[in-house]
Amino acid sequence: MALAGERVRLRAIERSDAARCYRWFNDREVTEHLNVRYPMSYATEEEWAERGSTANSYTGSQFAIEIAETGEHIGNCGMHEVSVLDRVAVVGIAIGAKQHWGRGYGSDAMRTLVTFGFRDMNLRRIMLLVDEDQPGGIKAYERVGFKHEGRERAGHWSRGRAVDFLIMGILREEFDAKYGAFVPIGEGAGDDSH
């Protein structure tokens, strides 16, 4: 089962994704704003893909991002640090295929992931951290509906200097106001099942 966005599909990670991820996460330009500092071995990526292909659960999940029209794998995203009690999660995303940067795939993937979090996982808040000097990412998150909540000063060491993390979040009611409230099957207007 894949999660369908307008332009992308989110699917489970497969072992065969390791080779692409190995290339992406050993490219300094791709990892510039990620928490990836050291060279990745192919064995590490294979282990990650193996875990990702079998370990998705409520408390954490990874997805491959594919262009819906072509099926091309262009990046990954996921839910992390999911709190069952608080119904809160941290999300992350990376578009590794640089030729697809700035084309709206990241925004659509994030909107699809957040929709899954609120509609299927019944979360009430989703948050992320983004480098203050990553304007493209910030704008993409704002388009989805994330709001600025705070700043983690000197939260990330990147490119030889300390960079502030911006804390951004979206609440379920904000998401519903922007995209329409979720109506479970059988509870919609005009339903004659009663």
Give the gist of this structure:
This protein is of the alpha+beta class and 194 residues long. The chain has helices at 18-24, 28-31, 42-54, 105-119, 135-144, 172-179, and strands at 3-4, 8-12, 61-67, 73-83, 88-95, 125-131, 147-158, 161-171. Helix 1 crosses helix 3 (42-54) and helix 4 packs across helix 5.
Describe the SSE topology.
Elements (H helix, E strand, L loop, with lengths): L2 E2 L3 E5 L5 H7 L3 H4 L10 H13 L6 E7 L5 E11 L4 E8 L9 H15 L5 E7 L3 H10 L2 E12 L2 E11 H8 L15
Parallel strand pairs: 5-6
Antiparallel strand pairs: 1-2, 2-3, 3-4, 4-5, 6-8, 7-8
Helix pairs in contact: 1-3, 4-5
- How many strand elements? 8
In terms of structural class, how would the helical and strand content be classed? alpha+beta
CATH topology: Aminopeptidase
What is the second-level CATH architecture? 3-Layer(aba) Sandwich
Q: What is the overall pLDDT average?
A: 88
Helix content estimate: 25-40%
Number of helices: 6
Poorly predicted residue ranges = 190-194
The separation of the N and C termini measures 30 Å
Strand fraction: 25-35%
Q: Provide the domain count.
A: 1
Oligomeric assembly: single chain
Main pleated-sheet profile: 8 strands, mixed
* CATH homologous superfamily heading: Gcn5-related N-acetyltransferase (GNAT)
Question: What is the spatial order of strands in the main beta sheet?
Answer: 1-2-3-4-5-6-8-7
What does the radius of gyration come to? Answer: 17 Å
Q: CATH top level?
A: Alpha Beta
